[in-house]
């Protein structure tokens, strides 16, 4: 089954035949990847991880009927009129066990979250209660309906109710919500082990080295920071532009990592060894070259491993803007797909504030987006070329400009916040 | 100067006098906090930190004039017509130093990012160049303008140009951009040292303890996860509901932490010791009680320290929904303010898809927002009460509902993504 070749036919991109579209490339990442193994971990370690199985609640929430306010549990049939007196027989604090049972005409002092005693008919918030001095009596100062300010057992969540679906990512709110239901461990997908390979002989480490035609590396720091933002560790390798060095490294990495992410060396230059070396080692091409700017020569391949999910190689071009798009869009999706989350990217839609000229490839432009009256307005920034990154100090989104269209002011475009 | 008392006069909140509005509370956090000290750290440690001083570029970007493509540097006056031949005199790779100097009619093989030789007039991409076999000659196969595919020195950034402003947060893109300019250390604000104090005797650690009226704690895990998301460490303390225990703990923490964040014990219940204890120790109240739901009894105070910035105490109510709003809105702003970023919260605006009844306090509702045709549509979720969190498994935003207004379908509301 040679799906890579089949792909060559299903898009004809004007003057650049053989390229697939951005949407086709993204879909191939979803379709051609297998989720990794799963593991059970403590909920306190699970921020941003993806559930491998649904979670059902073991308890009711609230766990017991309780007071919603600081006040008094009362026992009285029907509505209570202002002026009615009750005998005060005790106090229950939140977290306190109590065997108190109310009889008609009796009251118990309660605090928010405290379990209401047996035979409570309603709760009076303390603002409408007056203590009668030197007597164990209270007076209700405003009319009160039955069952006021009572949180009923199970009214939020019943035992057995589904709390989270497989594939769901555990946000801060999800962690809090599961904690409240007493969940202490979760079954999640393993985190992909990622090796990053920076190719190229042009990387300077110090100002002095700049004299010899070298440049500072943005790609390694960019990728490291992105994974750090995702709370995921990566291992960065630098490799010189020789076939031997690249080959030795890939040979070693393919067995130890789930993903090899490379920058540079994927075009058709004389020193572009990533693709030929990968194919030679036994990687199968899933796609090569996407009709996009920046990042056209992107390469995606898989290596089958015995008793293991495949190793995936995503080869990004070396231009920093291509690496930026690659990581925010493609690597992001790949990491999710390997963790069982197979839904497509969630693009926003926004309204462009100016014209954009047509280009034969789809473009990703760095923009500044702002909300106004419920609408999202997009403004492109200058310095969009693929060797430039300085506008990322201002940009807050990455916006897709469809190929072969003159974009008018007011057109709706899709993008992601960055 | 008793600003806390002055505040009591400047808002009269209908039936709940003395409360300040959400906007007033947020403004007080900005106005009444001092930024912490600053420090120099490695750029690789600086993700999400805030710049304390502007950064200027030490270098030009590009550092030297270079090829934008794999191709050939040519020396030729004016436009080059198809068919013109050039003598090939060498090759320059990216990162390679070269002393080559072109004469009229000569060419040098170049790769993307390679420094162009002296006297280069234009660059021909390899797609329009044909090698002449057995000769050191190439032929240009399409007309070519002067200065094609050359990236000029300093065209993106000039030496001395400002790269980032004081107060700017270092995103992934900012880290990449600064790396490319050779920045290796940055001057940033120190991270606030935060102690979290969970009050309340009702916290269960195991299923067995639930039998005695206790509940599982959502607040500790929520706060820990939020700070983890921000890549910030916090120290969590549990304290029993006695005046002595709270007092001892505050005494100890105020000297060692920049922020004490508490949950519970800030209302007017008989066991609400946070505010009286803090005031007794010497904290000065900045505000208490905000006209909001959830989270009305929120308390904010400062403790002056010798030769140190003050210690701030933010007391959140114990209801988990109030803690959630407190952390996403107020703690978020406080952390920024202490790191020199004094701009207000960046609220989105979105369009509500249904009616909402009026309430005398401003509400924060957990909602699900989605984009359509450049507009952001908001849908409220069920189970919004202050003791409920389970809808955070679905919510993606927190939306502000103004006080004392019936909200119509189609109204514009502000909020934050969560």
UniProtKB/TrEMBL annotation, chains A, B:
GO terms for molecular function: metal ion binding; molybdopterin molybdotransferase activity. GO terms for biological process: Mo-molybdopterin cofactor biosynthetic process. It catalyses: adenylyl-molybdopterin + molybdate = Mo-molybdopterin + AMP + H(+). Its EC number is 2.10.1.1. Keywords: Magnesium, Metal-binding, Molybdenum, Molybdenum cofactor biosynthesis, Transferase. Gene3D superfamilies: MoaB/Mog-like domain, MoeA, C-terminal, domain IV, Molybdopterin biosynthesis moea protein, domain 2, Molybdopterin biosynthesis moea protein, domain 3. CDD domains: MoeA (cd00887). Residues 195-337 form the MoaB/Mog domain. It is an enzyme of class 2 (transferase). Pfam families: MoCF_biosynth (PF00994), MoeA_C (PF03454), MoeA_N (PF03453). Its cofactor is Mg(2+). Pathway: Cofactor biosynthesis; molybdopterin biosynthesis. GO terms for cellular component: cytosol. It comes from the Bacteria. Catalyzes the insertion of molybdate into adenylated molybdopterin with the concomitant release of AMP. Belongs to the MoeA family. This is Molybdopterin molybdenumtransferase.
């Amino acid at each position: 089954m040679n799906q890579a070749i089949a792909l060559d036919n299903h898009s004809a991109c004007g003057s650049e035949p053989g390229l697939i579209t951005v949407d086709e490339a993204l879909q191939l990442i979803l379709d051609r990847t297998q989720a990794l193994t799963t593991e059970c971990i403590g909920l306190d370690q699970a921020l941003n991880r993806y559930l491998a199985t649904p979670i059902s609640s073991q308890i009711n929430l609230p766990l017991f009927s309780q007071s919603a306010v600081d006040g008094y549990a009362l026992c009285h049939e029907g509505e209570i009129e202002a002026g009615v007196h009750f005998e005060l027989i005790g106090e229950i604090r939140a977290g306190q066990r109590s065997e108190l049972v109310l009889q008609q005409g009796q009251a118990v002092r309660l605090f928010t979250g405290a379990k209401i005693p047996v035979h409570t008919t309603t709760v009076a918030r303390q603002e409408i209660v007056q203590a009668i001095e030197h007597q164990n009596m209270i007076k209700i100062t405003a009319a009160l309906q039955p069952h006021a300010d009572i949180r009923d057992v199970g009214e939020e969540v019943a035992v057995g109710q589904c709390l989270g679906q497989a594939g769901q990512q555990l946000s801060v709110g999800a962690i809090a919500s599961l904690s409240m239901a007493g969940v202490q461990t979760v079954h999640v997908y393993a985190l992909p082990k990622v090796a990053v390979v920076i190719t190229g002989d042009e990387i300077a480490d110090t100002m002095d080295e700049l004299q010899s035609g070298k440049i500072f590396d943005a790609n390694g720091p960019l990728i490291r920071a992105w994974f750090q933002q995702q709370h995921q560790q990566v291992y960065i390798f630098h490799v010189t532009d020789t076939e031997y060095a690249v080959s030795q490294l890939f040979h070693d990495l393919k067995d130890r990592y789930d993903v090899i992410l490379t920058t540079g060396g994927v075009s058709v230059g004389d020193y572009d060894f990533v693709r030929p070396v990968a194919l030679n080692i036994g990687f199968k091409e899933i796609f090569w070259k996407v009709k996009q700017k920046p990042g056209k020569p992107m390469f995606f391949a898989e290596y089958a491993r015995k008793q293991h999910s495949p190793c995936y190689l995503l080869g990004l071009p070396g231009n920093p803007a291509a690496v930026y798009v690659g990581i925010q869009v493609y690597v992001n999706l790949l990491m999710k797909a390997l963790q069982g989350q197979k839904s497509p990217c969630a693009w926003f839609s926004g309204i462009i504030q100016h014209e954009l000229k047509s280009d034969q490839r789809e473009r990703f432009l760095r923009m500044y987006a702002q909300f106004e009256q419920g609408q999202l307005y997009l403004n492109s920034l200058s310095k969009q070329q693929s060797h430039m990154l300085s506008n990322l100090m201002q940009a807050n989104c990455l916006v897709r400009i469809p190929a072969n269209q003159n974009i008018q002011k007011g057109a709706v475009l899709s993008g992601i916040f960055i």
